Structures are given as C-alpha cells and as structure tokens.
Amino acid sequence: MKAKKFKVDQWAYYCQFPESSNNILKKERQRVVVLEVLNRRAMYDYRIYIDGVGTIRKVKEENLFPIIQKSEK
Predict the structure, then answer these.
(1) For residue 66, which of 2, 14, 3 has the smallest C-alpha distance?
(2) Topology, domain 11-66
(3) Pairing state of beta strands 11-14 and 64-66?
(4) With DSSP H G I counted as helix, E B as strand and the rest as coil, what are the percentages for the chain, rounded to 5?
(5) Percent of the chain scored above 70 by pLDDT?
(6) Domain residue extents for the chain
C-alpha cells in the first residue's frame, strides 16, 4: 500500500489538469485544504475544500502539490 503524501487539515495546491499540454492549464493552482484521506479502495485519494471557491471535491493525489514555505533568514 502506497503511503499518502497529505494529511487531514494540511494545505496544498490543486491543479485540475496537471498532465495538460496547455501551459496555462498545467500551471494553474488553487489553494485547498485536505478534509479527508480516503481509504485505499476508493477511486479517489482525498476529499478537499477549494479555498475562495467554496467547493468540496474528491481528487487523486497526482492533482495535489505541496505548498513550499520560503525559509526565513
């Protein structure tokens, strides 16, 4: 069983079309929070809330990207 990258209440970026040949669609990111990590038998990996849009959606892990914090000097 593959370990999940994201945990409940973790913020991430969501891209609806990460494999698109169109650069605009590929680079589009929306801030989301993970509401639920779904079990391994489910078709999707996570249930997320899209910030600013107010939508709850089930997504696969390949559509989520970590938010990388800039280190403070």
Answers:
(1) 14
(2) SH3 type barrels. (2.30.30)
(3) antiparallel
(4) 10, 35, 55
(5) 93
(6) 11-66
